[in-house]
Amino acid sequence: MIFIWAEDQQHAIGHKGQLPWHLPADMAFFKQHTIGNTLISGSRTFASYKKPLPHRKNIVLTSRTHTDFPSGVEVLHSAEEVVEYEQEHPDETVIISGGARVFKSLLPYVDTLLRTRVLHTFEADTYMPEIDYNQFKLIESTTHQPDEKNQYGLIFERWQRR
Ligand SMILES: NC(=O)c1ccc[n+]([C@@H]2O[C@H](COP(=O)([O-])OP(=O)(O)OC[C@H]3O[C@@H](n4cnc5c(N)ncnc54)[C@H](OP(=O)(O)O)[C@@H]3O)[C@@H](O)[C@H]2O)c1
């Protein structure tokens, strides 16, 4: 499975249920990697989308047994169920879009990390769990300079489990 997220220089990922920043270049990167694939998100992250993301299979991770997600949204209840889902759907690319709790529970199973580094420090209340990058190899790194639409520099990284 693949993790995709953006973090600031202190590993912050969220603030008050939303992203701490507005960076269209990172949104485009997210779209490019998730369109056509299966996206699994925690219930808080899914709520931040406001609606299922189009052209992707939307799966929500929640402990709740009674849910009222829009039709078409699938539900899983544990990290183990996510692992089983991936094994049972080998034709699908499974991408985990967070948040912190979801990343933490699936860290043992992830093969690929798509990390965007935002070159700034923001006010935040949600942080990426600690990742041992010695277990991964950096295979791609692309820098995006600040521009009129993106106030901060970005580094798009791809890491593969060794
Ligand atoms: N920068 C980024 O790339 C990025 C990415 C994602 C999210 N975010 C931000 O991060 C914040 C949300 O993250 P968060 O950590 O607070 O919440 P989250 O992980 O999105 O959602 C937490 C909820 O997901 C469910 N859940 C998580 N792990 C589970 C597991 N292993 N088994 C069963 N259910 C599980 C539970 O739902 P129930 O309570 O319904 O049981 C839990 O309360 C927001 O601010 C969001 O904008 C940022």
From TrEMBL:
CDD domains per the UniProt record, alphabetical: DHFR (cd00209)
Cited Pfam families: DHFR_1
DHFR domain boundaries: 1-161
The EC number(s) this enzyme carries: 1.5.1.3
Protein name: Dihydrofolate reductase
Keywords: NADP, One-carbon metabolism, Oxidoreductase
Domain of life: Bacteria
InterPro entries: DHFR, DHFR-like_dom_sf, DHFR_CS, DHFR_dom
Function: Key enzyme in folate metabolism. Catalyzes an essential reaction for de novo glycine and purine synthesis, and for DNA precursor synthesis.
Pathway where it operates: Cofactor biosynthesis; tetrahydrofolate biosynthesis; 5,6,7,8-tetrahydrofolate from 7,8-dihydrofolate: step 1/1
Signal peptide: none
UniProt similarity note: Belongs to the dihydrofolate reductase family.
Enzymatic reactions: (6S)-5,6,7,8-tetrahydrofolate + NADP(+) = 7,8-dihydrofolate + NADPH + H(+)
